[in-house]
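Reminder to self: tokens first, then the designed residues, so the page reads top to bottom the way the pipeline ran.
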């Protein structure tokens, strides 16, 4: 082997079509793999960043014309890089492995011994007559700085390889692929100025993507990470590499996979769900998740019922999201919501459009506003029980580690896309969302959160598929761009009931919610006070239940209506009237349709609303 590791090797002659092409069965390749093949074939890019569903099984064309399902790393080495002479794999846990072309790599190590004074010659040779496989994880350096330097030397030596032909040295480069798994542990988020070893690693990997001697040759480098946000930004945003997201499988792909797992006769014996409907109910899961779910049911003789699938899918997805997504399941419908007539009518109509598939008429999102205790969260729970579409709540996704928050959001978005159609609820949205200008206090984290959310929420390809619902009592603290048309199109304000009939209906609904043994007509009248909302009513009823539950034993039990009347008499409304009024007026200001406003707010000019808001903020010290 020629010792030209320190020289820039010449651009190699065209070794044929520069593509890891598996031949006539290539249509069986996943879409991301076909895209990767076409990009590599074009000769413009040789470095790929694979992210997303990287821990799943991948369909690989087999000799029969069908597909077998293998891990991603094996798929790359055996299918995508089948025409390559050498495939080198590296991660910090296992070190360097050479699943293909181990003999060539071994000869390189011997050559390195001769010219660099190293001592790799003692490693076992796989023999010159066969393509070997080497697992050198325990023998070669595992730290990225030294391991990547060794791989780089091998790549450049492979490109400079020559053979003697007619008494002359003729270029005979090897075709090499390098796969870096768990790339975010090799080049994590962080400033390279403060991490000396990271600087060398970043330069090494970036050089593979931009050096013409490598990009113009039959060399491919692949970085694998679940979330691009976990990878150092210099690599994640490198213009010389191609970023390919591996999605979760869709219904058709899951159906194909399930048929390889369970025979029709065996499936029919344990399932109440028709085979044609099964894949649709599993969307949002990986192939590995589906395999575990079905094999668990087969092993335990567990009947596969719609309820079983729903519970298992919910459990798996919540674990995959590390608790950052929580499914909202409710037996209630919008009929259980007291008042808010126009809001219910609008949401019910949009629910019907969803079921009919008229996605072009569906808003991208909703903003529910109003003071605390007006039933924003309850309204969403009832909507979830009515529309027949999965509804999830986005929980706290912030993390203390650099880049982890952005990675959490990337993972969440991947799951949402896989679900096909989903309602996403963000409670207390003013606290959860970031700011366009976050300042230096959080190292720019809020700004990055804002940018990720804004980009995802405005993608019109998601219309009718991912529907966002934000709820907040302080919409003024949300960035204007997040709540604009095209992201949160419909702003629905909710207010306490303003008349006696509305108060009676809401009071009765609160009693039903608490499962109190009292008839609506037995409930005493509430004061004529439009400051009494659902929270206050629930508080009154809970006080009455407390009195009822703590009555002395042996004493004559007092009826609940009397105890409720006593609790009403003792009740003192909130002292924070200015803050509550501010929340009401902010909801009025944000409203996008006059039909949602009660008569008492509908005639107020916007200028008057703004003036009153300014005075209230001044009064409470904002």
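Designed residues (622 positions):
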């Amino acid at each position: 082997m020629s010792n030209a590791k320190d020289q820039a090797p010449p651009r190699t002659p065209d070794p044929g079509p520069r593509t890891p092409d598996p031949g006539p069965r290539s249509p069986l390749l996943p879409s991301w793999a076909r895209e990767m093949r076409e990009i590599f074939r074009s000769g413009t890019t040789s470095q790929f960043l694979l992210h997303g569903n990287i821990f799943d099984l991948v369909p690989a064309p087999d000799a029969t014309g069908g597909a077998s399902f293998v891990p991603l790393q094996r798929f790359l080495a055996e299918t995508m890089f089948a025409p390559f002479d050498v495939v080198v794999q590296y991660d910090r846990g296992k070190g360097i492995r050479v699943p293909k072309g181990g003999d060539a790599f071994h000869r390189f190590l011997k050559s390195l011994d001769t010219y660099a004074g190293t001592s790799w010659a003692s490693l076992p040779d796989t023999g010159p007559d066969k393509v070997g496989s080497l697992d050198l994880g325990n023998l070669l350096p595992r730290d990225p700085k030294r391991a990547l330097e060794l791989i780089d030397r091998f790549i450049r030596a492979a490109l400079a390889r020559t053979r003697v032909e007619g008494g002359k040295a003729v270029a005979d480069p090897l075709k090499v692929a390098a796969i870096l798994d768990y790339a975010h542990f090799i080049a994590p988020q962080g400033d390279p100025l403060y991490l000396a070893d990271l600087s060398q690693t970043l330069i090494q990997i970036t050089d593979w993507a931009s050096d013409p001697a490598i990009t113009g040759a039959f060399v491919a480098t692949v970085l694998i990470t679940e979330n691009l946000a976990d990878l150092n930004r210099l690599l994640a945003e490198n213009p010389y590499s191609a970023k390919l997201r591996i999605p979760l499988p869709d219904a058709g792909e899951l159906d194909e996979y399930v048929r390889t797992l369970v025979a029709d006769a065996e499936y029919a014996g344990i399932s109440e769900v028709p085979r044609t409907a099964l894949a649709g109910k599993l969307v949002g899961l990986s192939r590995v998740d589906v395999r575990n779910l079905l094999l668990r049911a087969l092993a335990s003789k567990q009947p596969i019922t719609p309820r079983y699938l729903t519970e298992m899918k919910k459990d798996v997805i919540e674990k995959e999201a590390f608790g950052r997504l929580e499914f909202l399941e409710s037996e209630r419908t919008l009929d259980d919501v007291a008042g808010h007539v126009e809001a219910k009518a609008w949401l019910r109509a949009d629910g019907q459009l969803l079921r009919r598939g008229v996605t072009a008429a569906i808003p991208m999102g909703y903003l529910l506003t109003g003071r605390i205790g007006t039933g924003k969260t309850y309204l969403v729970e009832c909507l979830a029980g009515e529309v027949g579409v999965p509804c999830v709540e986005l929980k706290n996704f912030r993390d203390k580690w650099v880049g982890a928050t952005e990675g959490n959001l990337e993972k969440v978005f991947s799951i949402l896309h896989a679900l096909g159609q989903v309602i996403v609820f963000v409670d207390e949205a003013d606290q959860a969302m970031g700011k366009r200008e976050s300042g230096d206090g959080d190292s720019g984290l809020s700004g990055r959160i804002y940018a990720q959310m804004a980009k995802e929420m405005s993608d019109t390809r998601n219309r009718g598929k991912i529907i966002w619902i934000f709820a907040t009592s302080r919409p003024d603290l949300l960035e204007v761009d997040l709540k604009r048309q095209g992201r949160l199109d419909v702003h629905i304000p909710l207010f306490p009931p303003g008349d006696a009939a509305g108060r009676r209906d809401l009071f009765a609904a609160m009693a039903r919610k608490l499962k109190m043994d009292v008839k609506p007509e037995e409930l005493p009248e509430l004061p004529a006070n439009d400051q009494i909302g659902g929270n206050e009513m629930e508080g009154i009823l809970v006080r009455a239940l407390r009195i009822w539950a703590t009555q002395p034993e042996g004493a004559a039990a007092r009826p609940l209506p009397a105890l409720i009347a006593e609790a009403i008499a003792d009740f003192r409304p909130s002292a924070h009237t200015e803050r509550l009024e501010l929340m009401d007026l902010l909801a009025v200001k944000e409203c996008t349709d006059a039909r949602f406003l009660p008569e008492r707010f509908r005639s107020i000019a916007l200028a008057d609303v703004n003036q009153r808001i300014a005075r209230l903020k001044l009064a409470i010290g904002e």
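The longest strand covers residues 466-472.
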